[in-house]
Design a protein that fits this description.
Number of helices: 4
Order of helices and strands: HHHH
Strand content: under 5%
Helix content: over 70%
Oligomer: single chain
Number of strands: 0
Distance between the termini: 58 Å
Largest sheet: none
Shape: elongated
Radius of gyration: 17 Å
Low-confidence stretches: none
């Protein structure tokens, strides 16, 4: 039988499969006390948090897609 921490960890993995990163981060946070010494868990937990931070920053910045495409063309030759 799985305890609540293990259930939260598996729910986080399922949320990652669905690309629901905010939900995954919440589940990882719930599971964190039980898995603090698990390197794989910590890697997934921290990476998900970083991904959310980057997505938040990108959403806050008005990115001009045309400018990015032009810069990519020039940087590729």
């Amino acid at each position: 039988m799985l305890n609540t921490f293990e259930k939260a960890y598996f729910a986080a993995l399922k949320a990652l499969q669905r690309k629901d990163y905010l939900q995954a981060a919440d589940y990882f946070k719930q599971a964190a006390p039980h898995f603090k010494d698990n390197k794989e868990f910590n890697l997934l937990y921290e990476t998900t948090g970083l991904l959310l931070a980057v997505k938040k920053q990108l959403a806050a910045v008005d990115v001009d897609d045309d400018k990015i495409k032009i810069e990519e063309i020039f940087s590729d030759g």
